[in-house]
Amino acid sequence: MIIPVILSGGSGTRLWPLSRTLFPKQFFSLLNDTTLFQDTILRLPEDLSDPLIICNEEHRFLVAEQLRQIGSNNSGIILEPTGKNTAPAIALAALKLIDNSQDPSLLVLSADHLINDNKAFQKAINIAKTYSEQGKLVAFGVKPTKPETGYGYIEVDNSLDTKCYDIQSFKEKPNLTNARNYLDSGSYYWNSGIFMFKASEYLDELNKFEPEILSICRKSYNKTDKDLDFLRINNEEFNNCPEKSIDYAVMEKTKNGVVIPLESNWSDIGSWDALWEAKHKDDNNNVITGDVILEKVTNSYIQGTNRLLSVIGLSDIVVIDTQDALLVADKKNVQNIKNIVEKLKNEKRGEIINHRKVYRPWGYYDSIDSGQGFQVKRISVNPGSKLSLQKHQHRSEHWVVINGIAQVTCGKKVFKLKENQSAYIPKGEIHRLENREKTPLEIIEIQTGDYLGEDDIIRLEDDYERN
Fold first, then answer.
1. Which of 35, 206, 283, 457 is 20 to 30 Å from the Cα of 68, by its Cα?
2. Phi-psi region for residue 204, left (φ > 0), alpha (ψ -120 to 50) or beta?
3. Does 369 fall in a domain?
4. What is the average pLDDT score of the chain?
């Protein structure tokens, strides 16, 4: 039995300003009509078991909704209270599956990769299964096609003509000179971050090299709480877990590691130049998204969202225009976006966390305008959904319905509002907004008060069990 384990906890900071902490790149449709996360599920061979998903607690409703959209079942959704890298995440998956009296082979996949050749992917899985059942820890390697500095590498012993190579060493993302040497040697593969091994074998090797990680993961998992369709890992225990990748924790140390070649065009879509390479280009080698007009522009990635974007006389650039942030970069320097993100973190800027439009399990809100003592939002509530029963200590709200019919709870009153009708919610009053219709409900919300932060919400009842 092979059970896919989908790691979906990344924040995709190298694709900022599109990818952000609360809505990272795996949940965007970047290459086609489906998202990277959905593509990862849809390319799985039909003879595999339902996937087990591991995600950040804050992404749980995105994961559930995107699974629903493609009609995918799952073997569970594990919620990490905080990201601790891949070694602990995979340990939690292995513990859950062994807890169900199974010892399957785990096919570990990232939720945000591009694999163009599904037949080659299936072939690599079939080969890896054989070695996994023999107790090997299999890493899927991709033959380098260029001296890439954005990927890690695996050195192998390829002196024998075989389908599987012993691992000699792991290499971090190299400089350009080393990347060229790796390419020329023919003994290196890109580390795809895809693995296969028996659950018990992984736990045994983790216990051998990083017993603290396994011990804490076991304690965290033993205190798991069932929350709707999710498994919520104990926060207090898991916070003490060391943060290590599977490469550092296990694969670099084990004597049972091997590499299976994945003979497909592969990318981790980890930067704007990688996305540029993966997408269709026009006659001037440009990738264009949105309302864009170009004049004498070549070899560039230009993406607009909500307004006309024009560029003249430039080449090899990246321009990403979102509703609240604009990025302009030389294409060969886009790896340095991480430095911008770090500065935003240090300055505690909200532009790395949320977009102007923020998705919630009941729909979304779009912060249209704000100023001293006021904020205006456009709120969309999905059919059959409702916000929590709540109150605010610092703000009052005025709601105006622009589409649909709203059911409003305000104190002891419950009433309906139609288009162009409005309601006033005083500061401190218990209230709720609900859509009982079959079409989306849209309202304009005007907030006024001395503090308008999202943490000024006291939830009394909530369908989604949020705090």
1. 457
2. alpha
3. yes
4. 92
